[in-house]
């Protein structure tokens, strides 16, 4: 579906016009926090809570968060011989994102071979190129069992206070289950997107029908199950889904099949490229799965991202296609013309081409011309999370499925009986909120607790003007504490688990070094942290945060990076270079910048 001719000026104008429709002064404040009367939206529909005695003991390492970050770090610690590891998790089991997101059709958007961690260690062969959620959740359970992480895990438990005890060089941890225990080290991987939010639509609390957020899917109401069994409970129902981001793109086809009438309320269309999922051929897998295979695949996928120079592309998908195109354009420039502005222009050209293809794809799939027109995304591909699906656009050809486009304005109002757009009420029995998760708010607000470090300093205060770390992991003033998340490290958004597995290695290495040498504490020095932040700021920044982009969580809802995200950038020389650098930093055994005492 190659697109050759387009008017760049007209496209630039159209992108800005579409962005302007969506700009609003309230930015992140447009969303509702799920507290008070809305707190029931957060209840766990999947696992009943069991009573237990509060813990008052001491652990070597406590990890907050039982998703990939906690599981992989826990596994690496156990491999390093650190047996005494406790994971605290707010859900009823391991899984994190994959514990909560069980909506029909949920699957990974990055190839399973690089997305699912510890495949080689567990011997698991992903059954599909893009595995579905139940398989990923089961893999989380597999890791938990294989590495003995269930033994001491505390589920349905939320940390409320975390305080450094300088005298004893340990953290005091208190939770909402009455626990009050200590740990020499704490690490936290609370997830970038785990606090569901609702749109602040007037009247939202007046709706008398049924409603839930996609991350708390109510199968008791809809029928069906996460593996895609038909949702018979919706057979006679009129259902609204609000939001058309990556989540909605995956669950709309299932709703379209199940509901009597489905209304998809759209504020901004997603760009939806080809998915091309397929089952894994075990013979092929046996050939590729030679020792060290997953690390080779990880390195190769990353090397095919921005600035990468890989000669082969093992994964070959929509993510690597983005960078392949840009590289081809830049390679087409005579060497003398590869000045930064020419490179940026080549990047823009390749983006226009890609987005024209994605818009042409809508026309080739969606039968109703008006619906097709409204489903076209008018922004650069990385302005919003790129989506990939082979049934989403097709769902709009299903009788009974209606796109209700709000022309960038969002839903006007919710009444006791339905959803109002442009003065028209759409009466529904159920509203599904595919409205996403808090991003761009304070780390400590999303975590649900603050850290009190050396001398009583609060992490919220220390990061009030932006995050400050070494490698995105170590924070000055907060000894023996490690953060697991992508920013200030590789910041590789296309494959979050790769960031996590590298941080896990680092944490296990540092903890083992401290224990082997009898150090009570380790902390990054102020100078080393400052130098790292300065290095990060020398980088080119990222298009994803551009105010030219249509608003969304990538650019803080169009208000530009606020204090809580302006320093959420990556290593200036790109993710592959970062991983090489980090590897050497660990291998050197010197751990430059850290002070052990
Ligand atoms: P998003 O934040 O991406 O989407 C929220 C949706 O709600 C947007 O379409 C938004 O519109 C819409 N919305 C918000 N307010 C209103 C309103 N007032 N009226 C109408 N619509 C409104 O959340 P998702 O859960 O879809 O995805 C979050 C992230 O989770 C993804 O970006 C991705 O990183 C991750 N994810 C990954 C998946 C995977 O790997 N397989 C699958 C699903 C999610 P607008 O765009 O205009 O703001």
UniProtKB/TrEMBL annotation:
<keyword id="KW-0503">Monooxygenase</keyword>
<comment type="similarity">
    <text>Belongs to the FAD-binding monooxygenase family.</text>
</comment>
<dbReference type="GO" id="GO:0016709">
    <property type="term" value="F:oxidoreductase activity, acting on paired donors, with incorporation or reduction of molecular oxygen, NAD(P)H as one donor, and incorporation of one atom of oxygen"/>
</dbReference>
<keyword id="KW-0521">NADP</keyword>
<keyword id="KW-0560">Oxidoreductase</keyword>
<keyword id="KW-0285">Flavoprotein</keyword>
<dbReference type="InterPro" id="IPR050775">
    <property type="entry name" value="FAD-binding_Monooxygenases"/>
</dbReference>
<protein>
    <submittedName>
        <fullName>FAD-binding protein</fullName>
    </submittedName>
</protein>
<dbReference type="Pfam" id="PF13738">
    <property type="entry name" value="Pyr_redox_3"/>
</dbReference>
<dbReference type="InterPro" id="IPR036188">
    <property type="entry name" value="FAD/NAD-bd_sf"/>
</dbReference>
<keyword id="KW-0274">FAD</keyword>
